[in-house]
């Protein structure tokens, strides 16, 4: 049996199990298979496991005519924060300790909210070694609408914890790089230093580099990168908050309080713009933005009406 044959067995097993348990509709199978084709051609199980599976970058394309996410009344599964336990491993504990030491409380809490808003509860499906055990979503937040997606939960948590590490005082004003790019490098080096797998470190790095590519319309992004974008923009600006149940927001902000996050992050944005008027955050601004011009990005963050009751 070739590696592609083995992977095809895994795909069939995953789809069959999802259908039996009612996690996906028959209409979702074609989408799942289309997402699996690049992986099968690559024959590298780490592509799927560490969240490199390509999906459309533009959420408008991703959600266009979507059966549960489009329209005025998208599906909202009733979940609470406690439904989404955090991964626990030596690597996770070490990264979390590093992040807590470097980030302020507001940013640390934001990073954990991002995990909850974007995460799913996994069930193991693969029975074919030597491939990693890929997890299929059982319940979801934004992934309520993409039950066929799968990736390593720990990798997404590491990306969530580290996605704003570049805003830490230790890094923001000590580099001329945009905070996402510096943070991505720090994250990759940290994971490798702590004994993480290179593909995992690369997945986290790639997602962090691109997590503010909000205005890029063409092409693809990694699955973990897309979820990270959707979850961060939801928490920061409130975009697509109607894809999750209000009770989830209530319980998540209770577990990880915002403590004035909107104002706090708006000031971080303004600080970086002042320090580095060439930075990637200027993509939110008018062309040829200059100091003294009101920041569109900071204004949008401060105007987050969805999260205002919890700030």
From TrEMBL:
Transmembrane segments: none annotated. InterPro entries: Cyanamide_hydratase_HD, HD/PDEase_dom, HD_domain. Residues 152-234 form the HD domain. Gene3D superfamilies: Hypothetical protein af1432. This is HD domain-containing protein.
């Amino acid at each position: 049996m070739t590696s592609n044959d083995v992977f095809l067995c895994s795909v069939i097993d995953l789809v069959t199990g999802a259908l039996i348990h009612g996690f996906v509709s028959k209409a979702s199978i074609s989408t799942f298979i289309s997402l699996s084709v690049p992986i099968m051609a690559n024959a590298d199980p780490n592509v799927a496991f560490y969240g490199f599976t390509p999906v459309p970058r533009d959420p408008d394309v991703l959600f266009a005519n979507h059966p549960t996410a489009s329209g005025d009344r998208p599906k909202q599964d009733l979940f609470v924060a406690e439904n989404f336990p955090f991964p626990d491993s030596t690597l996770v504990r070490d990264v979390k300790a590093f992040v807590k030491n470097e980030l302020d409380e507001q940013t640390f809490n934001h990073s954990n909210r991002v995990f909850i808003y974007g995460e799913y509860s996994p069930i193991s499906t693969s029975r074919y070694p030597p491939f990693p055990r890929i997890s299929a979503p059982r319940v979801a937040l934004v992934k309520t609408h993409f039950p066929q997606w799968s990736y390593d939960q720990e990798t997404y948590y590491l990306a969530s914890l580290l996605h704003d590490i570049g805003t830490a005082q230790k890094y923001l004003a000590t580099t001329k790089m945009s905070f996402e790019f510096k943070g991505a490098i720090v994250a990759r080096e940290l994971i490798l230093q702590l004994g993480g797998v290179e593909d995992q470190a690369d997945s986290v790095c790639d997602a962090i580099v691109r997590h503010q590519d909000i205005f890029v319309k063409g092409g693809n992004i990694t699955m973990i990168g897309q979820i990270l974008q959707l979850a961060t923009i939801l928490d920061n600006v409130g975009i697509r908050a109607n894809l999750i149940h209000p009770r989830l927001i209530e319980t998540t902000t209770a577990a990880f309080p915002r403590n004035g996050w909107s104002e706090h992050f708006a000031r971080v944005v303004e600080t970086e713009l002042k320090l580095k008027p060439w930075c990637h955050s200027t993509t939110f601004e008018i062309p040829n933005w200059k100091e003294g011009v009101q920041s569109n990005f900071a204004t949008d963050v401060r105007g987050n009406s969805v999260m205002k009751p919890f700030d």
